[in-house]
Amino acid sequence: MDSDMPLVSVVIPCYNQASFLKETIESVLKSTYPKIEIIIVNDGSTDHSLQVALKAASTHQQIDVIDQENSGVAAARNNGIQKAKGELILPLDGDDLIAEDYIEKSVEQFQKDPEVRVVYAQAVKFNEHGTKPWNLKKFSRKALARDNMIYVSGLFRKSDWEDCGGFSEDMKMGREDWEFWIKMLKNGGIVVQLPFVGFFYRLSPNSKRKRTGTNEMKKKRIAYLNSKHSDFFEKELNGPLRFQRTWSKPYNTLLKWVDNFFS
Question: Which of 66, 91, 260, 263 matches a 20 to 30 Å C-alpha distance to 124?
């Protein structure tokens, strides 16, 4: 094994995903990139997720298991990343999958350019009924200010995670990955999307994304983002993020024009 190859730590938070966890772990073990450690964080599961994780660890020396009281997915990710030994981090939820060459091709991008901060790939959504493309918008900071186009399972440097303060554990209203990418990317850095499907997002009727998709949660989320990143939204949207997100910049610009006109 090339000693110059960076270690990649795959951090898998898991809460009651025993039915899918083995398949998730196997998708990582099939990776064409050889220098990997897997850290499974059992976030207080009430099913047999912990037993699945411990069984995998007993047969694969590169797997470690952390068992914690239920603290939420952001805390589980942070706990796993804190203990990770890798230079590069890949968060992977306990029911999602990656392609065999996803990590290998991502590492190549980091080795090409030290300015690369995040690498991710094209993606599909899937369940027992089949798959469908996930049409991710093209990345730009202006687009990131209105919506998230990078799923949580992008690769990044542990040092950048440390510098931006990790995942915000007080963000309980969903889309904490969006806020994490804003923190990491708002002041610069190159983002690369690989030109192939590298990530498979499992659709679940009880997913957190569905539970936090209400208008009430959206309002709380927008208020939280504005309170944390007003400088970013001012720069990219000429003012705060609005409930109708795509109208944020024209609405903010109009308000400022009216204010200036009558002042």
Answer: 66
